[in-house]
Amino acid sequence: MVSKQITLITVLSLLMGCGENTTQESVNENLENMKEQISAPVAKKVPFEMEIHDHKRIDDYYWMRDDEREDPEILAHLEAENDYLKAKMKHTEAFQEKLYNEIVSRIKKDDNSVPIRKRGYWYQIQFDGSQEYPVHVRWQESSETQEVLFDENKMAEGHGYFSLGGYSISDNNEIATFSTDTVSRRLYTIEFKDLVGDKDYPDKLMDTQGSAIWANDNQHVFYIKKDLQTLLGTEVYRHKLGTEQSEDVLVYREDDETFYTSLSKSRDGAIIYIHHSSTLTAGVSVLNADDPLGSFEPFLPLEENHEYAVEKLGNDYYIYTNWNAINFRIMKVSSDKTSDKSAWTDVIAHREDVYIQDLTAFTDQLVIKEKENGETRIRVLTLSSGKSNNLGFDDPVFSASISSNPEISSDVVRISYSSMTTPPSVYDFNLTTGERKLLKQDEVLGGFSPSNYQSERVFIEARDGKKVPVSIVYRKDKFNSDGSNPLFQYAYGSYGATIEPSFSGPRLSLLDRGVVYAIAHIRGSQMLGRPWYEDGKLFKKKNSFYDFIDVTKGLTAQKYGHPEKVYAMGGSAGGLLMGGVLNMAPELYLGVGAHVPFVDVVTTMLDASIPLTTGEWDEWGNPAEKDYYDYMLSYSPYDQVERKDYPNILVTTGLHDSQVQYFEPMKWVAKLRDYKTDDNLLIFETDMEAGHGGASGRFKRYKQTALEYAFYFNLLGIKE
């Protein structure tokens, strides 16, 4: 499978809501409870002057940055914020526990993934009871005896945070690489495991990106080592089994600090790829997997503003490319002419109204994921006949993606599917007939019935006349046509990341209490194709904020929610969105959740030492250039905090966050406390053990979800 290499900043799907029969008296009561007389932490001010482009900024809270995360004063302040949150939310503790148990009770405890077949083995992920982590197993096609590859529960023992970055099996099926992170900085240690005997491999590869790709000799692997300051994966190394990491050979170094690097292997096992990607440019270098001592060669020399990825099929490559095709097209070239673009031929021509998202090749078929007017379509093109057909799905608004399909010769394609009312499902579609077979649909316990819920897609007109698609879901018997329901609105809107209308089990706790939940597919995503993304970045970034605000106004005008019961939420770059919306239209929202928020835009983008900064210049702009500086400063949430009223705000972060450093939300909260003229609640939680994705584990993560739900519910007087 190929897809555009976009650095996605992990999105947190944390929701809120309220219920029916809420009285103003109960609202006032609960707001007063939450405003219990306890002093919020007051951060000291240490003016720090920054000057560029003949413009001076004073940052009173710059001192909060500690790259080592060891400063006692900073840690004490974060703990004081956590204590303040606990005190303010103490009266909701029983409700939090109820919400947590409610969410967890819907999850089937003993559960297994649909097995995947590769090289004569079936691979499966298994969950057992209340264990936080899965067990990875496999078995041979000729045997039903399972062998445990990795038991993450045992591996996680003694660690507050644990992540298995992934594993890779050698071509002879005898050795596995696996990577682990126990800090949540996304710095993985790669190790090796003997799968057929009791051999102990002492090899340890430190500070890596996590994945290791086997050469076909079963002796060499390729991996990426990270820069410890910027956390960018800049160096590709070749490692020989049984040797020290110090002996590894550097085979590629990325010198362009705006590029990200990753590795993969072609599905036929013949080629190892190095993927090079920035916001505007992408391509690959290739190596014969039978020749690990050889050199990587460019498939096509990188060209500015040209993004492509490849899928190998026999002696040909199918190319996913935006060459003279803003919404991408599929082309074909023989393996001996890849660098000659004149030899590339169209397989699926560019269409201005259809955005091609993904491609997977089989022996006689191409499976393509595309969008038209925001609606997903999975299409099968038969190469021998040139005929195509669309795979059929049932819901009017849904999410579908091409799943793991490791075997090119398979006669079926596996598709992952869900909708806002249909739990995650796995289908196999026959590539010839289109016949579908449901292999699994996640069981939602507690009497869940899709028929109780309704999903819709509407378009809201933005201030410049553009129509913004919005995906909506609500419980039918809780929906009031008079517009009295509480409305929760979520969006992301950056990097071209498209938030699909998919299912959420925890969200049922909101819908069942009368919340109308809406995803605003604002500019900055690619819901309406690549131009929709281009219209929401760089000097057009404010369109993302305006779209979100205009969607709020439009939804309440159409009576999907009450204008005094609107909540907004976003995480990471969606947290930037929340910060901008808070400054631009605070009066529209009763409450806002900003999770791991990217809010100190200018300062971060001026500092190339901060992880991920350089790779983001093509998304936001480089403020070392005055035009970008001026524009970014005009919306940067931290810089635009004003002395005015703000709504109730919940902010979350992780101390070890590698994507958005903890000090951005920490500084923002301190400044908001100093500037805001209201007595609305502002609370801030730092997970002292986690990073960008929050707590690890299957169930533990929902403790924070329950806290956040309780925060939102209390704003409206909902106690159960």
What does this structure look like?
The protein has 720 residues and is α+β, with helices and mostly antiparallel strands. It folds into 3 domains: 19-105 and 452-715, 3-Layer(aba) Sandwich (Rossmann fold), CATH 3.40.50.1820; 158-295, Methylamine Dehydrogenase, Chain H (7 Propeller); 307-443, Prolyl oligopeptidase, N-terminal domain (Methylamine Dehydrogenase, Chain H), CATH 2.130.10.120. The strands form 8 sheets. The protein has an 8-stranded mixed sheet, with helices on both faces. Strands 9-10-11-12-13-14-15 form a 7-stranded antiparallel sheet, with no helix packed on it. The longest helix has 17 residues, at 72-88. The chain is globular, with a radius of gyration of 26 Å. The two termini are 45 Å apart. The relative contact order is 0.14.
Provide the descriptors you would attach to this structure in a database record.
single chain, 720 residues, alpha+beta, Methylamine Dehydrogenase, Chain H, 3 domains, seven-stranded antiparallel β-sheet
User: Which CATH architecture of the largest domain would you pick?
Assistant: 3-Layer(aba) Sandwich
Q: How can the largest sheet be summarized?
A: 8 strands, mixed
Overall, the morphology is: globular
CATH topology descriptor of the largest domain: Rossmann fold
SSE class: alpha+beta
Number of DSSP E strands: 39
The CATH superfamily of the largest domain is known as Alpha/Beta hydrolase fold, catalytic domain
For the largest sheet, list the strands in their spatial order: 32-33-35-34-36-37-38-39
Low-confidence stretches: 3-23
Overall number of domains: 3
- What is the helical fraction, as a range of percent? 10-25%
Terminal Cα span: 45 Å
CATH class of the largest domain: Alpha Beta
Number of helices: 13
Rg, Å, rounded: 26 Å
Summed over residues and divided by their number, the pLDDT gives a mean of 91
Strand content: 25-35%
